[in-house]
Amino acid sequence: MLKAALIMVVRNEETLIEHNIRYHLAIGFDIVGVLDHCSTDCTPAILATLAKNEHVKVFRSDDPVFDHAALSNLLLCNVLQQQDVDWVFPIDADEFLYLPGGVHAFLRRMIKRGVRYGTIPWINALSTSCSAADAGALVTTKFYHPWPERNWQHEGMFRKAFCAMHDAIEIVVGGHYFRKENNLKFFGKEPAPVLLRADDACIYHYEFRDSVRALMSKWRLLADHEFDSSSRSDAPWLERLTKIRTYVEQWLLDPDGSTDYWSSTPRTFWGTPIPPELIKEHHHIAEWAAEFAGNQVFPMCKFER
User: What is the model's pTM?
Assistant: First the structure.
């Protein structure tokens, strides 16, 4: 049976990390590898408990520089030293994969279609005022599909990659892509990656979770420490980091104004108000989270591995 690994680099994710790991184990992932990057909240203690499960592999880095691509590859290397893996899915702690039928059914469909490297589209959650104690942001059912708001953006920017294992595998751009040039024989001459449709699979993305204060705290860490060694310094997508620094500066100068700006109306990362007609309802993760909060074990049936 093919083995699928989910890997993620996390920092101070005490409100989501247990839900994330248990959810992805429940949909059939054989391995969940986590690199705890400098967490100072309860994340390390939560991970220590979860690591008692043989399917969960936890590592730690205390280098304050947040080089997402380098850390992701370090994590993958550590996982591969302990476990044979056939497929790799890099995600973040605020991302939840929806794979109809579970991960192995999804991979069988991909293999049948000849997909060895693909990307899965985001569906972005609107913020919720619910307490994190009872599943927090995951109880929201309101989402929107992101669209290009900058001239350098394209459909592939709103996705995360997955890939079959191959020689010289390398994760780039924080898990959004894998480097094709390392193994042209594996990737072949066809364009890569394959852009999947949202009905094939999707990623529910909860960037705007918790309070505005918590969001600014997380963004401040990124503003101070984020770096991507897999990208040129003039890569246009790094405008995102510049924008984060601007938001943090505005917050420090006027926290009340920033709170009102982000909480008064649903906005995209770029500050664009989201048209009401683009907001849709999705219940998959909310239903799982509600059951998980009441059960605290594995409320979903285990899919065939």
Answer: 0.93
